[in-house]
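Data card: per-record layout.
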Amino acid sequence: MPSGAVRARWSLLLGTLLWTAAIAAGLVGLWRYDFKRGAAAAVPDYAAFADEAGRAGDQAHLVMLAHPRCPCTRASIAELARLMAQAPGRLVADVYFVQPPGTADDFVETDLWQSAAAIPGVRVWRDRDGRAAARFGAETSGQVVLFDAAGRRRFQGGITAARGHEGDNAGRAAVLAALDGDAPADTPVFGCGLGNAPSGSEERPCPM
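The structure for this 208-residue chain is written out next.
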């Protein structure tokens, strides 16, 4: 076989190997990104501020802290809708969308705000300067905290299985179990940091 043909074959083989390695590295990086946990909240077992945040009478109270421009949080809002549909009349939910200092009121009025507001039983709020997030010790968008009617914490964590992933997950199951009287539970939360989520278009990727 002419030497030129041999070199061409080896070049093709080397190119294929390099291309395969690049694809594999990209898939590993994507997997690590999807399953990279956010910082957990530091919520006390009993929250005197549960009433302050809007807990309703004899119902359990769920609070979600979210960044209005975190694309990962679309999945959290979708899972919240499924959760509310599975537990009609059993809890009230409040979603606080962080409004960073110096931003206009319409900064929070994204598609995430509209989607959350459309869920029956859910109220949405502007979290000016991230005060509610600080009160709940939340650092990651999509952080959920559940209190029972007495204001005791029954759950904290995320209600998605990974960043931006909808579907059955341990967090949603734990909230439903807590409503049935199971022991308090914690799960990982996946999302942008509430202080460093993207501030431009919702289509921008989350920061690493």
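Known properties of this structure: Residues 24-37, 196-208 have pLDDT under 50 and may be disordered. DSSP finds six helices and six strands in the chain.

See the next section for split statistics.
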